[in-house]
Structures are given as C-alpha cells and as structure tokens.
Amino acid sequence: MPHINAAAALQISMLLFALPAQYFISQWYGMDSVERIQVTERIIASWSISTRSYLSVDAWADRLKLWLSKTRTCLYVGLLILRFRNWYYGEKKIKSDDSEAKPHSYFAETTRVHSPKPEYIKFRVGQVIIHKRFGYSGVIVGWDVKANTPEERLQPRYPPVKQDLKDIPHYQILINKANGFGKSTAYVSEEEITIIMGLEVYHPDLETYFSGYDGSKYIMQPWLKKLYPHD
Fold this sequence. Notes:
Distance between the termini: 70 Å
Largest sheet: 5 strands, antiparallel
Number of domains: 3
Radius of gyration: 41 Å
Order of helices and strands: HHHEEHEEEHEEH
Number of helices: 6
Structural class: alpha+beta
Strand content: 5-15%
C-alpha cells in the first residue's frame, strides 16, 4: 500500500472539500441579500452549537460522568451475574456430589459396571424373553444380582411365602409393544421368564439400547456394553 504523507493528505482533503464548496458558492451567489443573511445566521448558529458540544470542557466532563455511571452499572450487573453463576453451579455440584454419594437408582438402571458377572445369573442383556405368567415378550436391558427395588414396593409383591424371590437375579425388560400389553417396561425375577429365539421386539426406546438384532439376541450399544461387559 503506498505511503501517504501529511502534504498528500492535505491535498486530498482540499480536493474533497472543493466540490461541496463550489456548490455552496454557486448557491450563495444565486441568493438575494436577505437569504444570504439567513444562511449565514444558520451557519453561525450551527457552529456555536457544535463548539459548545464538542469544544466545551463542561460538555466533555458531562459525557465522562455519564460514561462512568454506565460503566459502574455494567460492572455491578456483571458482578451480580458472576455471583449468581457461582452460586448456581456450586449448588448444582453439591447436589451432584450428594447423588453420587447416595445412589438411588433402582430396577437395574444404575450406571455401575456389572463386573464380574456371577455364574448363577442365567440370562444376558439383549436376549428376548417371554413372561411365563402374563405371556408378554420383551428384551432384557439390565440385571441385578437381587431385587433392587424400594422396600415399600417389595412388600406387596413378595408376600412372606415368597420372600426368597427378593434374593434371586432380577431383570429390567422393555415390553414388546406388539403384545398390546398395558405397560412399556417391567422388572421381573429370573424364575418368571424364559428365553425365546427368533422373535423381534418393537419398542420406542429400542434403538437407545441396541444397534440391531442378529436373530438370537439384540446387539448392545457401546454405552450399554460398557455397563455389561460380560453379556
């Protein structure tokens, strides 16, 4: 880019000023004396206002005070936002830490890795089952070595004569929508179900857990495989 010195800048400014100056002069000489006086008074008034606005120390002092006032307001609001953000995320972290310290997930929905897998657990995640009593089909999406259910739900489900069922493996099931069964999921004991081959399951959440079906079982998504590495 060519270098422009002060003399060149002055020449360019004069050329740019020449056109409006010529226009003003032509208009000026086309006016009568009264119009010239009126135009002159307007120019002087405009110059006086501009001088008071931009060349006055008091005007610039007022502008500075206004700017400082706005700056202080912005800083105050910014501090309030920062304090709220720190409080919010601090509270969120505390709640998160509390939830991690006190796990409360039930029905085989924990994020804990199920390893090692006890030999007495017969079924695997991805297998299709039939409920012996109710006849619905579904696919296993998780298991627990024993019932992981709030005690208030265990009492009516397992009366005194069936209390031993609480201590056998339990499975979380996505129920096949093709059965027309009222529920979409179930949490059942091992003795209530049996495995079936060659039956596909239809459920809105199926793709969340599985990537496909190989004819005998459903293939787990990577995140689910990490939780059940031995299935």
